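Re: that chain you flagged

S.,

Sorry for the slow reply, it's been a week of failed gels. I finally had a moment to sit down with the sequence you sent. For the record, here it is as I used it:
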Amino acid sequence: MVGVSGVRGIVGNSLVPEVVTKFSAAFGNLVHRGKVIVGADTRTSNDLFRYAVFSGLLSVGCEVIDIGICPTPSAQLMVEKLKVEGGIVITGSHNPAEWNALKFIRPDGLFLYPEEGERLFCLYKKDEIKYVSWNEIKRVNREKGAIENHLEKVLSIVDREKIAQKRFKVVVDACNGTGGLITPELLRRLGCEVLTINSEPDGFFAHPPEPVPSNLEALSRMVKSQGADIGFAHDADADRVAIVTEKGNILPEDYPLLLVTKFILGKRKGLVVTNVSTTQALDDIVREFGSLVKRTKVGDINVSRCMKEERAVVGGEGNGGVIIPEIHYARDGIAAVALILEYMADSGEPISYLVSNLPRYYIIKKKVRFTQGNFSFLKDQLKREFYKSRMDFLDGIKIILNKGWIHIRASGTEPIVRIIAESKNREEAEKLCNLGIEKIMKISNSIKRRKE
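Prediction finished late last night. Pasting the structure tokens below so you have them in one place:
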């Protein structure tokens, strides 16, 4: 699959070395044969694809800087620090272990803008890649400083002494991904007592790597049994984070963004940027501080780009992805950890109290398998089904109803349609989500009948 999140697929099926090599060569042409850093998460397929990426880049005359295994935001920061022409991160992010992907980075450390991604795909698809001869092939160099550079950046924006005075006990679930290489060390430097689970960075995930409540029961039990102040969980490349309170309650995905936003706006006002699927609670918080929210299409690059252009003070997505411009215009689960601890230290309150003062909405997220090629027809039919309601077409279709909203869009990372519904009442949110699925299935059945 090719989209705003890069190129991804199932290893040995849709994603094979030939595909990876060719996309890497196309990217090397896109960045005019410049220097390119290459990083990776901990997946077992990464060595297979790392050498394929090297081959593709070298074949078009790029110099490669191998930064090894590190979080995606660490790699993005390294592109910026080394002033290279681009970067490739080999990571399936939140996808299951059988998936992997390439994420392509611009010279400013952000992912490719959609129009740049289109140019990359055209180079790949039209076989317009220009290769170099034997005497123009450059070298692969090693650079080990990505994680340390990231740590220094994060530590520079928080009050280390204030956090250290609290001597927080923190549990980290890295899901055998890259978070285990950085977050425990960050916490130790912040004076915390650190406990870890699933910290071995071997790519054999102890549970599905998406940091959603259904995957975090072990973390919840550990926090409660150890009397910890808070628990954090990352996905495989640590650009996202989830939270467990000291009571063992697993918070919804959007709470890291809500907490960080409230903390930052309490210190300085400014624009907040998020995507069209993120909770209405963010608007309520921002309104308290007399600030504004701007919404974009789903996809962290859409949020990052808008934040950079509009000089937003904070932003992110409701999936645990928080963007703090003081560090970088990229999702950063590690930076979010530090800021949430500073919020706790600053307020003198436990995380459960801070959460209890957030606006309460209920979001239900579901998905159904659906061929992407049929999505435009689905969208047209949904317009007819909900013709009496207010609708937003920024990304897919968002139907705004009296008791909440339903957002339906084709996934950019899987062959599915995502249905997200929100209401102030859990039961109503479930009803709205089921209503969306019911309409999709009705339309899907009509598509099948047409083909027959």
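What I noticed first: The longest helix spans residues 426-451.

Talk soon,
D.
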